[in-house]
Structure formats: structure tokens, C-alpha cells
Automatic annotation (TrEMBL):
It is found in: Cytoplasm. The gene is fdhD. The keyword Cytoplasm applies. Belongs to the FdhD family. Required for formate dehydrogenase (FDH) activity. Acts as a sulfur carrier protein that transfers sulfur from IscS to the molybdenum cofactor prior to its insertion into FDH. It comes from Candidatus Argoarchaeum ethanivorans. Pfam families: FdhD-NarQ. GO terms for molecular function: sulfur carrier activity; sulfurtransferase activity. The lineage of its organism: Archaea, Methanobacteriati, Methanobacteriota, Stenosarchaea group, Methanomicrobia. NCBIfam families: fdhD_narQ. Keywords: Cytoplasm, Molybdenum cofactor biosynthesis. GO terms for biological process: Mo-molybdopterin cofactor biosynthetic process. One of its GO terms (cellular component) is cytoplasm. This is Sulfur carrier protein FdhD. Its main location: cytoplasm.
């Protein structure tokens, strides 16, 4: 698994008076160009795998389309991704009608126990990757993806979940990334009611989660979590 995510380099390790030659594993990234209906949309620096899933997740999570059914095709050729979508009426990215309406309630212990899914051999080897997971109400990790980018990791894991037609309203999102509004809005557009991260929120992330009815849990550990918005979604 490490080989597909990292590359080995020779380096000099210097500590106090000690100098020695070492081999280090470094996370790999690649620039890909996404075109939608033959128009260039964005350049993405990403771990070079699962680019079709990345594209599906990106188009939904960024509001380019309202649902996977709006995507006609995704073709990947090396670093060039061509997506064809149905013509959108009202801009799909409009925030006016976004709201998580489902009433799923999650158990506290399930959330605390799920933090272990964020552990990654790739991260411990390279210190250069993020993880994102989709976990169901019973605490089963249904999808787990790793990427050099925290946003990409979410796009990929959501893309994989959508390909398998998971009901994301009954799942929650685990992420190693700091939660800004841009991260929270990805979950909103995907229809995920709960975000759990083992790190910090930004003020914009808390404000967005509060506005769009998402429960945002931060600094999660096996015995601790900080619920910043909508605690009614968790059975404490």
C-alpha cells in the first residue's frame, strides 16, 4: 500500500552532533486538470489514484451538480479528467436551499470508538497525508480513503460512497482535516449530518455547521470529543 502513496528518497538526518544517511518515504502528489463539458474547471493536486471517484465526489461536494444522476460520464486519461454533466438550471452551488433535514441520531460511544479509523500507516510513514472515512450508525467503517489533501480525501471517500449508493444521511464523516466552511459545505452537499475530526475547527466551519444543521465534533479522541454545533444529533 505504501508504494502507491509514497516515494523513497535519500537524505541526511541531523540531530545534535549526529549526522547520518537515511532513506525517507515522501507522500506523492500529482496535478490533474478537470474539464467539465469541455471547459477547464480546476487544477487539483492529489494523490494519483481513484481519480474517477475524486471527480464524482468533487462535482457533488462542490455543488457543480446536485446529484450523481446529473453526471453523464467521467473519463480519465493520465492527468486529464473529462466530465460531461447535464445542463444545470439554478446553480447547483447555491446555498439558499441547503439544509440537512434527516433526523439520524448517533451514539456517543460509536463516535469515540471510530476515531481509530483515522490511523494510517501511510501517514505514520510519510507524515504527509490526510484520511477521511464514512462510518455508519453501528460504527462500521464503510469507506476509508487517504490523500495528500484534506479536501481531496473527503471528495474521494464521498465519491466511493456514492458509487455504492450508500445512504449518507445515516452515516457520518470522519476527517483528519481542520474544519473550515469549505470542508463543512462538502458534507452539507453530500447530505451527511455529522462530521467528526481529530483536530481543530475554524470559526467559519462552526458557523457553517450551525447554519446548515450539521453536528460538528472536533478534537475527537477515544475518550474525549468537543461538540461545537447541534448536539441533539448525538445521544450523550
Amino acid at each position: 500500500m505504501i508504494k502507491s502513496y509514497a516515494k523513497t528518497y535519500n537524505a541526511l538526518a541531523v540531530k545534535n552532533s549526529s549526522i547520518k544517511e537515511v532513506e525517507v518515504s515522501v507522500a506523492c502528489e500529482k496535478a490533474v486538470e478537470l474539464f467539465v463539458n469541455n471547459k477547464h474547471l480546476v487544477s487539483i493536486l492529489t494523490t494519483p489514484n481513484l481519480l474517477e471517484e475524486l471527480t464524482l465526489g468533487f462535482l457533488v461536494c462542490e455543488g457543480v451538480v446536485k446529484s450523481p444522476e446529473d453526471i453523464i460520464s467521467i473519463d480519465v486519461e493520465d492527468s486529464r479528467i473529462m466530465a460531461m454533466i447535464k445542463e444545470q438550471g439554478k446553480p447547483a452551488s447555491s446555498h439558499q436551499d441547503m439544509h440537512i433535514a434527516c433526523d439520524t441520531i448517533f451514539e456517543r460511544q460509536v463516535i469515540l470508538d471510530s476515531v481509530k479509523y483515522l490511523e494510517s500507516e501511510v501517514y505514520h510513514t510519510t507524515r504527509g497525508t490526510h484520511a477521511a472515512c464514512i462510518v455508519n450508525k453501528q460504527g462500521e467503517c464503510k469507506k476509508r480513503l487517504i490523500d495528500v489533501g484534506r479536501h481531496n480525501a473527503i471528495d474521494k471517500v464521498v465519491g466511493c460512497a456514492l458509487y455504492e449508493h450508500l445512504d449518507l444521511c445515516t452515516h457520518f464523516l470522519l476527517s483528519t482535516g481542520r474544519q473550515s466552511a469549505s470542508m463543512v459545505l462538502k458534507a452539507v452537499r453530500a447530505g451527511i449530518p455529522l462530521i467528526v475530526t481529530n483536530t481543530a475547527p475554524f470559526n467559519s466551519g462552526i458557523d457553517a455547521a450551525d447554519q446548515y444543521n450539521i453536528c460538528l465534533v472536533c478534537f475527537a479522541e477515544p475518550d474525549y470529543m468537543l461538540i461545537t454545533t447541534h448536539p441533539e444529533r448525538i445521544k450523550i
